[in-house]
Amino acid sequence: MPLSPEQLAEIEALRASPQPTLRAVAPGMEKHLYTAQEVLDHGFVRVVDYMGDDAAICQAARVSYGKGTKSVQNDKGLIRYLMRHWHSTPFEMCEVKLHVKLPVFVARQWIRHRTANVNEYSARYSILDREFYIPAPEHLAAQSVINNQGRGETLTGDEAARVLEILKSDANRAYDNYEAMMSDEGQQGLARELARMNLPSNIYTQWYWKVDLHNLFHFLRLRADSHAQYEIRVYADAIAKVVADWVPAAFGAFEDYRMGGANLSAQALDVIRRRLKGEEVTQENSGMAAREWREFVDMIEG
Known about the structure:
- DUMP binds at residues 109-112, 120-124, 196, 223.
- Its EC number is 2.1.1.148.
- The active site is at 223 (involved in ionization of n3 of dump, leading to its activation).
- With 302 residues, the protein is of the alpha+beta class.
- It is 47% helix and 14% strand.
- The chain is built from 13 helices and seven strands.
- It has helices spanning 5-15, 27-30, 54-65, 75-84, 104-110, 157-182, 192-195, 213-223, 230-246, 248-259, 266-276, 283-286, 290-301, and strands spanning 36-39, 43-51, 95-103, 117-120, 141-143, 151-154, 204-212.
- The strands form two sheets. A five-stranded antiparallel sheet has the order 1-2-3-7-4. The chain has a two-stranded antiparallel ribbon with strand order 5-6.
- Strand 1 (36-39) and strand 2 (43-51) form a beta hairpin.
- Helix 9 crosses helix 10.
- It starts with a helix and ends with a helix.
- The model has no long low-confidence stretch (mean pLDDT 91).
């Protein structure tokens, strides 16, 4: 179960007792407050609190630039200008606090994004639940032969069944020993802070994660990308849907300029200009290394 009965009761109580406020609210985000979006087999993402909206981004920009923004006809145009020119501080005026339940190995990848505030469930004080991430068969894949950090072909048949059985049995055996080490029936029992070290990295943890919109966009640019690991990408995809409702103008600009756009090196830009003039440009006369050339060709030719 992604949410415990206690968490469900807390959410229902909060949603049943709305409070009046004078602060600006984003209607698209209000519908997400406290509602858990299920992710993977036992995980979830839910919005706990937020601050700001599209208007807050524009408000901050106009305070900063004054008359310099008077030529922008509307908020959407201003936001697109800010995104296009890599402005950051106006987007930092919006913040969101998320409650996330996720496998430990995903959390260790996620925590690399250091520009956020995090408070994680402590296995020093509490006992972790017997909940493990077990991939669906379609997400079991062999090691890629061309990418050292990626997946290759999907496992099938007996091989997939063998791997799934190992994952399940190892996780449950480790948890059995975790419980046994802490047992106080006729023995002292090992401290929780030591017993936890025997748990597998596919066990679920939880945390509160608070981040501003600028740094959240950076997270989404990397983790909602098709090349990101599936298990973190599905969390990023769930968060992206929330952000699209929260700040639709900013998210639209983000999709255009960051997710759907591309950054070109001086060499790549030179190649495009030469091609537009009718010159035949190859990797050999482009000045690019072979790998960079392949990436460039994939980008412009799809």
